[in-house]
Specification:
4 helices; mainly alpha; globular; about 100 residues
């Protein structure tokens, strides 16, 4: 892949990630705390928000491995990649919040 194509594809992917994060925020974080779902999960599971996110992300990681090993449609790949990237973005936010 040529550099310009790589940059274009990366920008498109990150824009899809952002759109999904914004849409999911309306559903999962109707108040100001974008990370509230993981905090609630942590209380329910007697763990930390980071560990709760890890558990939720494991499902997406398993799906990613399934696609790697058994292939999938372009739509399945796109959704799985966006979900996985978004979990990493949310993990980054939890780590930043923990530092504060």
């Amino acid at each position: 892949m040529q550099h310009r194509d790589f940059v274009d594809e990366t920008e498109k992917l990150l824009m899809r990630c952002k759109r999904v994060l914004e849409k999911k925020a309306e559903l999962y974080a109707p108040e100001d705390d974008r990370l509230s779902q993981f905090k609630t999960m942590a209380v329910l599971e007697d763990t930390t928000p980071i560990q709760a996110l890890g558990g939720a992300m494991a499902k997406h990681t398993a799906t990613l491995y399934h696609l790697i090993n058994y292939s999938g449609s372009e739509k399945q790949w796109a959704e799985t990649l966006v979900d996985h990237i978004n979990y990493l973005i949310l993990l980054n936010a939890l780590l930043k919040e923990k530092e504060e």
